[in-house]
Amino acid sequence: MPSLLLERARRIRERLDRLALCTEEPGRITRPYGSRSLGDAYALVNAWLAAAGLRTWADAIGNLRASTARGRPRRLLLGSHLDSVRDAGRFDGPLGVLIAVDLAEHHRASLSSPWPFDLEIAGFCDEEGLRFHSTYLGSRALAGVLDPVVLAETRDADGITLGEAVRRFVGDSAPPAALPRDGLLGYVEVHIEQGPVLEARGAPLGVVSGIAGQARVAWEFIGRAAHAGTTPMALRADALVAAARWTAELHDFARHRAAEGLVATVGRLEVTPGASNVVPGRTTGTLDLRAPLDRTRHEAAMEILALGEVHAANQGCEFFARVEQETPAVRCDLGLRGRLLTAVRAAGLPTAVELPSGAGHDAAALAAAGIPSAMLFVRCRGGVSHHPDEYCSEEDIAAALAAMDEFLLALAAESRPKNGAASKIPDLAGLRGTNS
Question: For residue 256, what is the domain's CATH number?
């Protein structure tokens, strides 16, 4: 690996370490939407962007935005997210933002002629949904598809609406979030794989073929609170027992359909009244359901929720569920995917791997809204993510930089005038309207 690429990768690692100090919980990374720690992360990244010569701003939803702002007729968007889950790793999200920053820096310092398109960068404010349990907030706003009802009705654990949190975070006078589509070539996101496939295949990089659809469901079992010592077992309406048996069965249900790529997770559980000597009268929680095909996910959701009714009736309880958010499965843009695959090979790396993503990403929200989108995955050790042990080597980061350098150079070469002809950014089949 050339020393310059390793030096760039090392600088990215150092910046990741600095961003890891921006947290709500000292000793571990927790960076939710609208928090002081997210603002601290923005300040760091904003300084690096400005030093690279980009114009920066925060938009009306709270995304950190930047542009080379040379007035080119076409633009290419790069980025990822800067928020985190609770007790996160340092690579998930920020790696893609910092690679985009590095590409802008490297271009400014090393290339003899400017790209014939403007480069834009987005540091998305809320991909994980830690605070409001509403994923892709920043990217949905950028795509222009965020329902205003979400701002008015979504609340955090303290009862603060999402709209109020936005006002506190960015104020009322920030520029609009929606990205103008005219002249937009597409969106490319570099991200750690968050899975073991690349490591198993001995490949540092992979090009994403598509992103699984996802549904987030809020559910509750309503029983009857009662004295733990005086209420006979046969006369109880125990909401926790109903929830526990349903949770175990949906786990087995998803395992039996693993060949279809179905995964189901109950990630949050709350028991009321939550006293050691009271039979639980109410149990609430969340269900995260994902599959590569929307039909698979829809059919599974119907069966899983029907099982909830059965387990509720068996315990003398009631069951209620509502879908809080749904993101369709998407295919990544064929043209952008092809150019990434070519760039990986041009960088002298092993044969490029194509693979689907089971994790959700901002690219999914943009692609679902019709914006040509693609992703480059970077190998992570053991496939571990959403955990402090998340790790990506400097060599693999350098490989991603090499591939992205090749991608941008090739796109620029295709776009420059030849033999005195007028400059034209290629409006290739794969760069426009091929997300199927």
Answer: 3.30.70.360
